[in-house]
Hints:
This protein is of the alpha+beta class. Helices cover 48% and strands 18% of the residues. Strand 4 (61-66) and strand 5 (69-74) form a beta hairpin.
Amino acid sequence: MPASSATSVPVFKLYGETQHWPTPDLLHCESIPERSQLHDWRIRPHRHADLVHILFVSHGSVDLELEGTSHQLQSPSAIVVPAMAIHGFLFSPDVEGHIITLAKPLADHLHALMGENSTLKKADFYPLLQPNQTDRIATLVAQVDQEYRQPAPGRNSLLEALTQALVVELSRLCAYAGRTAKRYSPRQSDKGRQHLEHYQALIEAHYREQPSIEQLAEQIGVSSAHLNLLCRQLAGRSALQLLHERLLLEAKRQLTYTNMTIGQVSDSLGFSEPAYFTRFFKRNTTFSPREFRLRQHAQS
Length: 300
């Protein structure tokens, strides 16, 4: 899809929503009915610039729209939706199951670990025809859900390990099915998408240094104005917003899961003074870093 035609497809920050990423985690897990029933069981076609969905439908059915094609799936089934893939769902009211959403840093990490065997960049669906396949995937999804909802020591490590095991199982399904799902993949020849992916990779590598948009655009080989236009068209946010979102996510993680002082967090993220960091954080969350940390600890 050319970048210019992408503007008609909404860009969501989460499953069915335009709200900001709601957690300091790199993973979000919820039941499918939890959010889809709020939308009359329909999530209209949309895409995510930097998120990957894994859906496990354990009961009921779903009409799936995936990159311009429609499919009627019965349970049990699994669905993988990578970043930039256009997708929509119409669930039956009796649907049961879970949706696991991976933020780009975790998705990229797991993809790198799995290499060519990873399914995280291949949009596809998998009917679960063998009871042992269903049981293994259902067990892993249930364990992810339980660990996500009940924080405990080593939570991040266990969530990553469980998710990696889930990706392995899905990769096996892909191998058994004997298909690569290339027909669903974002067009690799699309220069706009390539530039966005390059920009996201540069953010991940350098966000702690807080480089200027001009510096990053130069590395990609485009002007800052063109980069900003691409980000708005394909990601629904400006280039600076994407950089700030990654900074904010890391700040939330450090405030939640480390004992670093506010000054240490500020330094680690490239702010010249803690006061600047506090203003940045409060502007984007309405809370000071200290208030956010207290709220997170009170909820754990």
